[in-house]
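Module 6 notes. Inverse folding takes a fixed backbone as the condition and produces residue identities as the prediction. Think of it as a translation problem where the source language is geometry and the target language is the twenty amino acids. Below is one complete input and output pair. Work through it position by position during the lab.
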């Protein structure tokens, strides 16, 4: 029962992590009085689950640690708290399996004793002649005995051992599933961090543009070409871009901290993320092929199936408690009144235990085990349906994200052209600075949309890998970093 319950908890916890750690795409930044974007990393961190923690190793160094996505994944698969705890859960399940096996394996023991006794014959019903003392002794008893016992047939113990083995197998599969979740979480944190860095670079470029336009407006005002209001508008835009840059720099620092914590890097260590966001189109995959891969490879499905077999064996064990069992016990020893005069003795006992009535205990165990079996069957069917949903949703997201990148890139190019034309019109004096400011807003929004689309595109590929159960093997290849 203990091993089966532990494995069931581990499997349910593992399958629920994907929902708890659903990717939070950064909101688009807006100026002109609109609120700044919320932090995607902080939204995930608020989940407070074990996969966001890690066991730091080593001490911070004075230099900068170069960290690629592949290196982050490798560190996460060693130092993430979910991995560390998962390894111990597997060991615990293995211990419970041996405990369950002890019910059918032989046992043996050695007993060495030295005693000094007095015996009252009348206590045991032996007659004593009148005038004779019933007390014999004191005398010494020296004994050395080896005792062995084994269950020749115990159906309940056999089924409990089987349930323990299935629970241990379920724990192994749950650990594999936890590794894939660590890959998913680590890759997501890495993508969020490089996304924030891309936004910093874009914000710096936009700040430079805003500063150049402000300088131009000042020059034109001095030349008497434009009114002072145009300078004020340009200065407001500079301050807005500075605010945007400060926000993204802070978010990038926090997202790097979240990544370092998840992969076990000391938080005081300076880290440089070497990979960057890039675009690689998603290879077409048929729904039937994706579902087949998922049903064949998903570790959480294998774990649920093992738990179902454990529940079935557990129910059979409950039924077996009402069946006869046969045990054989043997004892071989040497004993005497002194160690230098020992004599051999032995005994062999075969015992059949036949339960007749135990106050409804067996009936209660059968009802409990049957209820657990029905629950596990329902959870397995639900998991199959959820896998199909996740695969279908991941394929839809991958295709939509691919299309979104194309549209966002086109919109970004058009926004850049619009800003260039607005600058030319303002310089020529045929338009006010309002048109330039509006064009700058369009560029900022289009750039944020494009960066967000790249993030969603790369994350959709990791989610697809997770959905078909190949995340650990393919995450690095699927993410479009360079």
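Target side of the pair, the amino acids:
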């Amino acid at each position: 029962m203990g091993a089966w319950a532990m494995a069931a908890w581990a499997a349910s916890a593992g399958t629920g992590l994907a929902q708890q750690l659903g990717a939070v795409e950064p909101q688009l930044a807006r100026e002109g009085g609109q609120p700044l974007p919320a932090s995607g990393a902080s939204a995930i961190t608020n989940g407070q689950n074990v996969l966001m923690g890690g066991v730091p190793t080593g001490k911070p160094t004075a230099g900068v640690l170069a960290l690629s996505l592949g290196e982050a994944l490798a560190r996460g698969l060693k130092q993430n708290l979910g991995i560390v705890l998962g390894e111990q859960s597997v060991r615990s399940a293995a211990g419970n399996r041996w405990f369950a096996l002890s019910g059918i394996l032989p046992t043996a023991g050695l007993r060495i004793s030295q005693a000094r006794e007095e015996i009252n014959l009348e206590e045991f019903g032996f007659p004593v002649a009148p005038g004779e003392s019933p007390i014999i002794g004191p005398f010494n008893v020296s004994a050395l005995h080896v005792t062995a016992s084994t269950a020749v047939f115990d159906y309940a113990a056999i089924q409990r051992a089987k349930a323990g083995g299935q629970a241990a197998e379920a724990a192994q599969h749950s650990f594999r599933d936890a590794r894939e979740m660590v890959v998913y979480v680590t890759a997501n944190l890495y993508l969020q961090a490089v996304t924030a860095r891309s936004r910093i670079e874009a914000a710096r470029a936009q700040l430079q543009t805003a500063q150049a336009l402000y300088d131009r407006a000042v020059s034109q005002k001095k030349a008497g070409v434009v009114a002072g209001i145009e300078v004020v508008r340009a200065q407001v835009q500079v301050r807005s871009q500075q605010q945007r840059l400060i926000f993204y720099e802070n978010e990038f620092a926090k997202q790097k901290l979240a990544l370092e914590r998840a992969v076990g890097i000391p938080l005081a260590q300076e880290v440089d993320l070497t990979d960057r966001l890039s675009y690689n189109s998603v290879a077409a995959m048929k729904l039937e092929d994706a579902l087949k891969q998922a049903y064949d490879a998903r570790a959480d499905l294998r774990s649920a199936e093992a738990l179902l077999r454990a529940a079935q064996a557990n129910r059979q064990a409950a039924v077996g408690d009402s069946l006869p069992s046969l045990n054989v016990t043997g004892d071989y020893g040497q004993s005497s009144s002194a160690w230098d005069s020992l004599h051999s003795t032995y005994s062999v006992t075969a015992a059949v235990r036949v339960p007749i009535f135990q106050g409804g205990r067996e009936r209660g165990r059968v009802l409990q085990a049957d209820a657990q079996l029905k629950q596990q069957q329902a959870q397995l069917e639900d998991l199959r349906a959820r896998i199909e949903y996740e695969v279908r949703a991941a394929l839809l997201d991958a295709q939509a994200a691919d299309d979104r990148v194309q549209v966002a890139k086109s919109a970004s190019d058009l926004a850049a052209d619009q800003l260039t034309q607005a600058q030319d019109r303002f310089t020529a004096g045929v338009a006010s600075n309002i048109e330039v400011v509006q064009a700058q807003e369009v560029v900022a929004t289009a750039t944020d949309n494009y960066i967000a689309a790249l993030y969603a595109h790369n994350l959709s590929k990791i989610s697809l890998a997770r959905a078909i159960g190949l995340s650990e093997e393919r995450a690095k290849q699927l993410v479009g970093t360079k």
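Reference fact for the lab report: DSSP finds eleven helices and six strands in the chain.
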